[in-house]
From TrEMBL:
Increases the formation of ribosomal termination complexes and stimulates activities of RF-1 and RF-2. It binds guanine nucleotides and has strong preference for UGA stop codons. It may interact directly with the ribosome. The stimulation of RF-1 and RF-2 is significantly reduced by GTP and GDP, but not by GMP. Belongs to the TRAFAC class translation factor GTPase superfamily. Classic translation factor GTPase family. PrfC subfamily. It is found in: Cytoplasm. Gene3D superfamilies: P-loop containing nucleotide triphosphate hydrolases, Peptide chain release factor 3, domain III, Translation factors. Keywords: Cytoplasm, GTP-binding, Nucleotide-binding, Protein biosynthesis. This is Peptide chain release factor 3. GTP binds at residues 96-100. Signal peptide: none annotated. Its main location: cytoplasm. Transmembrane segments: none annotated.
Length: 538
């Protein structure tokens, strides 16, 4: 038994450590500068010697694996790095999200593990399609969003116009905290809205060194840049008039977003973003369990698995589950219980994952991410706990809209094929459906976006040495149904019923929405339940 005094001091530590945590993800359209920003953030925190150790883009050192090569070639990023660093005595956990909407299910899972998101906009492009989709996911999860307008060093749109677009398109009221001096492409510095303090930046070449920041008094700044200074003052006056001021309640409720301007490449505004995260973003809070009761932060250890990934790089062919700590103190070696099966789970091999580097984690607190190696039994959405049982709500599977039958090209490789399919299903890379009619040799893949098929075929080929053929099926709509409906629905044309591997649910697939509506009208008593849609996450 733990001494009550020890228990009280552990509780106190948990509360104190949790208050220092900030766990967030960056959402952006590919090319908006997410990798550059991530590197610049880490550079400010001085956890790496020079920019480039976080992500593996061409010419940069980082994570490598076969399928990541494919992602990079296509400008997409499926796999994630988790980055932890200390900034102003706060522990920052930065989780990467896939940039492409076809992987919105994966993004949704990552966003289940964060307390805030940074929405990164390209100053020249504003809200781009993937940003919109990813923002929808944030909204559906109630994640507060900080907006960073990037690439202000390059010609782009007007600041007020960008703010207007954010408000009009996604209904998020912008609350700029800083204001740029100089139009996009003529970036001179940043004015603090609350204090009026002006910081001039001398740009550094590349992302490897910080830009030099100098606080300049208003008179000097006005004399140096008369036109830009007076324009900025006019704009600031306008912002005050329309009441675009900081409001914590609106930020936390997801109806308003603090906005910052900067250039990740020149390291301008990046420290300000970190300050904003530390000062304004919420620390981890008690998480509701599946019954809606909050698990207090100081309750015994618990965590949510939000991602499972194998073969993250060639040197580590193992399978890792990423656990977000939700309550209590995690200590390596502790035995947790897997809520789904009730089985014990040993945490001897707990690691932190930083790009391709891994280090052993000895302890962790709410908000931290722990990588659990060889976690074969764990799936995204699972709960692990110590002592008091708890189960957090599972992460729902999205409605698939693309379907294909997959088969091993070479019958001799069937064993590898089966193993690979099972593995990818467990990682929730794609949904796997089966029916007696089709047999185990030809499962059906169900995807939210077609790029998921490419990830599956590439990984089966490269990791499992199982080349495959894929035949697309003419279905576009899926609904949850049940065993009773199976016989009736299977007898209809342009309709097929299959069972999902992950949860045993029956899915009825239809050629299109009209066909589904006709069948539904014919059998109004059968179960036709919609799933959340990846494209619109309602
Ligand atoms: P991503 O992860 O969101 O896909 O974007 P990434 O950071 O790779 O940035 C995309 C491109 O935008 C890169 O240029 C990068 O250097 C540039 N970039 C990012 N932030 C800024 C910024 O603040 N200002 C300017 N001017 N450019 C920025 P690239 O030429 O495509 O790649 P690279 O060869 O520089 O890596």
């Amino acid at each position: 038994m733990t001494d009550p005094q020890d228990a009280a001091s552990i509780d106190k530590r948990v509360v104190g450590e949790t208050a220092r945590r900030r766990t967030f993800a960056v959402i952006s359209h590919p090319d908006a500068g997410k990798s550059t920003l991530t590197e610049a953030l880490a550079l400010h925190a001085e956890v790496i010697d020079s920019a480039g150790a976080v992500h593996g883009k061409s010419g940069r050192k980082g994570v490598t694996s076969d399928w990541m090569e494919m992602e990079r070639a296509r400008g997409i990023s499926v796999s994630s790095a988790v980055l932890q660093f200390v900034y102003r005595d706060n522990v920052i956990n930065l989780l990467d999200t896939p940039g492409h909407g076809d992987f919105s299910e994966d993004t949704y899972r990552v966003l289940a593990a964060v307390d805030a998101a940074v929405m990164l906009l390209d100053a020249a492009k504003g809200l781009e399609p993937q940003t919109l989709k990813l923002f929808d996911v944030c909204r559906s999860r109630g994640v507060p969003v900080i907006t960073f307008v990037n690439k202000w060093d390059r010609p782009g749109r007007e600041a007020l116009e960008l703010l207007d677009e954010v408000e009009q398109t996604i209904g998020l009221r912008p609350m700029p905290l800083t204001w740029p001096l100089g139009i996009a492409g003529q970036f001179k510095g940043l004015i603090e809205r609350e204090t009026g303090e002006y910081t001039a930046f001398t740009r550094a070449a590349g992302g490897a060194t910080k830009a030099t920041a100098t606080v300049v008094d208003a008179e000097t700044a006005a004399a140096q840049e008369p036109q830009y200074w007076s324009d900025a003052q006019d704009e600031l006056g306008l912002l005050d008039e329309i009441g675009a001021s900081w409001d914590e309640k609106d930020f936390l409720s997801g109806s308003a977003t603090p906005v910052l301007f900067g250039s990740a490449l020149s390291n301008i505004g990046v420290a300000r973003l970190l300050d904003t995260l530390v000062e304004l973003a919420p620390a981890p809070a008690a998480r509701p369990d599946s019954e809606g009761n909050d698990r207090p932060l100081s309750a015994p250890t618990s965590g949510l698995v939000f991602k499972v990934q194998a073969g993250m790089d060639k040197a580590h062919r193992d399978r890792m589950a990423f656990l977000r700590i939700c309550s209590g103190r995690f200590e390596r070696g502790m035995i947790l219980t897997h809520a789904t099966t009730g089985k014990p789970f040993a945490t001897k091999y707990a690691q932190s994952v930083f790009g391709s580097e891994r280090t052993t984690v000895e302890e962790a607190f709410p908000g931290d991410i722990v990588g659990l190696v060889n976690a074969t039994a764990l799936r995204p959405g699972d709960t692990l706990y110590a002592a008091d049982p708890v189960e957090f709500p599972t992460i729902p599977a999205f409605a698939p809209e693309y379907f294909a039958v997959i088969r091993a090209k070479d019958a001799g490789k069937y064993k590898q094929f089966r193993k690979g399919i099972e593995q990818l299903g467990n990682e929730a890379v794609i949904q796997i459906l089966r029916s007696d009619l089709r047999g185990d040799q030809a499962p059906v893949l169900a995807a939210v976006g077609p790029l998921q098929f490419d990830v599956v075929t590439t990984r089966l080929e490269t990791e499992f040495n199982a080349p495959v053929t894929l035949d697309r099926l003419p279905y576009q709509v899926a609904r949850l149904t049940d065993a009773e409906a199976e016989v009736t629905l299977s007898a209809q044309s342009e309709c097929e019923v299959l069972r999902r591997d992950s949860d045993g649910e029956y899915l009825a697939l239809f050629s299109n929405k009209w066909r589904m509506d006709i069948i539904r009208k014919k059998f109004p008593d059968l179960r036709f339940e919609a799933m959340p849609a990846g494209s619109t996450v309602s």
